[in-house]
Amino acid sequence: MRLRPKMLLIVALAVLAGLGASVATSKYFGAKPESPPPLEEVQVLVARQRVPGYTQLSEPGQWFEVKKLSKLEAPRDAIKQLDHVRGRTVRAALEPGKVLQEADLLPPGQEPLVAKLREGERLMSVKVTLDSAAGGFILPGSRVDVVATQLRGENNQPYSKTILQNIEVLAIDQQPQIPEGTIAKTYDRVTLRVTLEQAELLSVYADTGTLRLVARRPDDTEEVKTTGASPSWHQRLASLAKEERPPQEPVQVVASLPPDPLARQPFKQTIINNGQVRVYEYAPENSP
User: Fold this and answer.
1) Alpha-carbon span 103 to 48, nearest angstrom
2) Tens digit of each residue's pLDDT (9 = 90 or more) over 194-241
3) What is the dihedral of CA 135, 151, 147, 165, to 10 degrees?
4) How many Å apart are CA 139 and CA 162, to the nearest integer?
C-alpha cells in the first residue's frame, strides 16, 4: 500500500515530536537539582544551664552563651548580645537551651525585693512605731538588732531580751529606696532579711509582745550574748552588788591650816666682797 504524501508528512511530524519530547525528558530528569538559597542566620543567647528565677545577671556569660539560629527559628524578641542583659533580673526559671527573650526579663529598675534574697532567705515585714525604730533613722540597708518585750509572771513584770542581731533592713513602708536628702522618716512597717527560723521567732514575739529595732554600725558584726532584763532582775542585781561590796573603813580627814603670813620665816643672806662669797643663815627668831 502506497502512502500519500500528506500522510507521510503527518508521520514525519509525529516522529520528530516524539524525539523532541524524549530529548526534553532526558534533560529534565538528568539535570542536577539546584541548591536552595542559604537561610539568613541571627545571633541569640541560649541558656547554658538552668537559670533560677529572680537571678540577677551581673555576669551574663556565666548563664548564657551566644549561638546562631536561622531567622525563621529565632523568636522576634530574642536577646542578641550579652551586654544587653548585664544587671537585668530573670523573671522566672529558664531551662537549659532556652533562647533568652525580652519577655523573660524584668523591666530595668523594677526588680522586686525577693530578687535580693539568697538561697534559704525570706522577707518578713514587722510592724513598728517611731519610738521603737531608733527615732526614724533606720533606712534600707541599715543593720539592726531586734529587742522583744513581754509581760511575765503574776505581776506582769516587763521582760526584754535581744532575740536577733545584725539583721539587714531591706525596705521601710515597702520602699526599698529612700529619696535623696531624707534624714529621718516615720513609718509603720519594716521589711527584714531573715531565715525561716528567724521568721518564726519574730512571729512569736510580735504576737505576744512588742518589738524594737536598735540600729548598729554597718561594720559591727559581733554578736553579744545577753540574759535579758526586767525591773525585778535589776533590783536583785543591785541588792547582790550591795551585799558583795566589802565594808569600808571610815576615812579621817585632817585639815591643815595655811601658814601665817605674819610669822617669821628662816632668812638667808649672801655677801660678795672682793670676789669672795659668804652666805649667812638666820633662824626664824633671829630673822629681821
Assistant:
1) 18
2) 999 999 999 999 888 888 888 888 889 898 888 888 877 656 655 655
3) -170
4) 20
- CA 129 – CA 173 distance, rounded (Å): 11
Residues of the chain within CATH 3.90.1210.10 domain(s) are 41-104
**Structural element, H or E, at residue 267:** strand 267-273
Asked if 26 contacts 59 with a C-beta cutoff of 8 angstroms, the reply is no
For the segment 20-75, what is each residue's pLDDT rounded down to a tens digit? Answer: 667 666 666 655 556 666 778 899 999 999 998 888 898 999 999 999 998 888 89
Please name every residue paired with 277 in a beta bridge, in sequence order, or none if there are none.
Answer: 272
264's grid cell: 617669821
pTM of the model: 0.52
Alpha helices in the chain (DSSP H): 5-30, 196-208, 231-244
Report domain 41-104's class.
Answer: alpha beta
Q: What cell does 284 get? A: 626664824
Measured CA to CA, the distance from residue 76 to residue 197 in angstroms comes to 45
